[in-house]
Each structure stands twice: as structure tokens, then as C-alpha cells.
Prior knowledge:
The structure holds 2 protein chains of 2 kinds. Chain A contains no helices and 12 strands. Chain A has strands at about 5, 10-15, 20, 25, 30-40, 45-50, 55-60, 65-70, 75-80, 85-95, 100-105, 105-110. In chain A, the strands form 3 sheets. In chain A, strands 2, 5, 6, 10, 11 and 12 form a 6-stranded mixed beta sheet that branches. In chain A, strands 3-9-8-7 form a 4-stranded antiparallel beta sheet, with no helix packed on it. In chain A, strands 1-4 form a two-stranded antiparallel sheet. By secondary structure, chain B is an all-beta fold. Chain B has no helices and 11 strands. In chain B, the strands form 2 sheets. In chain B, strands 2, 4, 5, 6, 9, 10 and 11 form a 7-stranded mixed beta sheet that branches. A 4-stranded antiparallel beta sheet of chain B has the order 1-3-8-7, with no helix packed on it. Chain B starts with a strand and ends with a strand. The interface between A and B is medium-sized, with 26 and 26 residues.
Amino acid sequence: xxxxxxxxxxxxxxxxxxxxxxxxxxxxxxxxxxxxxxxxxxxxxxxxxxxxxxxxxxxxxxxxxxxxxxxxxxxxxxxxxxxxxxxxxxxxxxxxxxxxxxxxxxxxxxxxx
Amino acid sequence: xxxxxxxxxxxxxxxxxxxxxxxxxxxxxxxxxxxxxxxxxxxxxxxxxxxxxxxxxxxxxxxxxxxxxxxxxxxxxxxxxxxxxxxxxxxxxxxxxxxxxxxxxxxxxxxxx
Lengths: 113, 113
């Protein structure tokens, strides 16, 4: 079955240090990949998406993600965390033009002063 | 500027009393989704519309129904809310196509008393 796995349920970093949130997917072919962020009691906001144009994708708020087909991964990174980055992050996958969005279980990012 | 609008943001309903949540969009997207999100969990797809075609997830309880009278509006009806239905309900839309992202509303927080 097609699935997406976020390897860490909770990541804690200090302000100003790098952020790495990991995501792997299972598929025999490349899906569309997205990262969303959700702040408490809010909807989901798109950070970035991979659509096969380039393997390194830049998103909003300084986030970027690299698609690695050989590793079936799409990890999210940011060079320097801000307090405002504290939120829940979801890796989301879509297979095919009419495929539904498949959510990972989410990673809660905490940022310490 | 709001593109996917959910009303109300907070809804309190009595156990067993029917409740309707609404969603509207200004994006003219073909696809509309309803997700249920419980605390510290990923959103769970309840159903979606592809134009007028209704697609119910296999494990969505019969207690949940939906209506889409036109492209812009979609409703979630909970016929007899139970305590276990208390959750955040998220509406999302997307255009056709494999690489299209979903746009989410701010959500409706449902409390059942």
C-alpha cells in the first residue's frame, strides 16, 4: 500500500540552530510531495511542493526540501530556526492526478530560546 | 483574501443534535475535501467531491453526510453527534491535476456537550 512516514513525532531545537524534519514515502514511482505547517487551532498552510521540476525545492519562511528518489525521501530543512517556527509539520503525498492526499502522522517542532 | 472559508470557527452542539458545518471557496476548484482532525493526529479524510461526484471513504461513519449544491459551497452534516465526534473539521480544495496542492480553510472546532 502507498504510504508516507514521518520518522520523528517530535523534534526540539534551539533558536538559531538548523531544523531537519524527515519524511519517507513508499512507491514504485514518484508522487507529488508537499510539506504543510499547522499552528495551533489553525488550518494547514503549504510550505512547499515537489513537482519533478527540480529536486531541491525552496518554500516560504526559509524552508526547503530535497527530493531523493533513490532514498524515497523528502526531508524538510531550515538553516536557522525561529521561535515562530514552532508548530506541527505534515508531509503529504499525492499519487496520480486523481489520487487523494495521504498525510504523514506529523512532526511537532519545538523551538527553545 | 481568504480563499477557503469555514463557518463557524467554533461550534458547540448537544449530544445527538444535528449540526451542519459550512465551507465556501473563491478559487473555483473542482475538488473539495472534508477532513476530521483529532488532537495531536493527522487529518483523516472523510469524503471528497470531484466536481459533483461524491466519494466516500470506506471507514467514514454513516453519521457523516455531505452536500455540494454548487462549485463554491460544501457542507458537512453530522446527523447525531457523539462525544467521539468532537474534533477539528477541515475543508480543503484543489484544482485538477497531479501536482496541484490543496488549500485549507481555518477549520471548525466542534465541541459536543
